Amino acid sequence: MQCLLDVKKIVIGGGISQQDCLVDTVNDCYKALFKISPVIEQTITQIPIQQAKFQSDANLIGAAEGLKNEE
């Protein structure tokens, strides 16, 4: 996804984001990708991956904001 879009940060929301080990594991795997090949490190900039501030409520807040913007 990062190669196709100009992503500055990845934020994991929803119920799954309440598991602290998930974000840590995703970060560890993401960092491991850069060690596989020097080409990856030279062409892709590492970006932060973090837990959503509102965790499992992130989807509800996003939906409400979307409806608000449609009006």
Structure description:
The protein is mostly helical and 71 residues long. Helices cover 51% and strands 8% of the residues. A two-stranded parallel sheet has the order 1-2. The model has no long low-confidence stretch (mean pLDDT 85).
Short key terms for the protein model shown above:
71 residues; mainly alpha; two-stranded parallel sheet; 3 helices; 2 strands; flat
Number of helices: 3
- Spatial strand sequence of the major β-sheet: 1-2
Domain module tally: 1
Summarize the main sheet.
2 strands, parallel
Beta fraction of the residues? Answer: 5-15%
Give the secondary structure arrangement, pairings included:
Layout: E1 10-12, H1 20-36, H2 38-43, E2 49-51, H3 58-70
Parallel strand pairs: 1-2
Short characterization:
The protein is mainly alpha-helical. It is 51% helix and 8% strand.
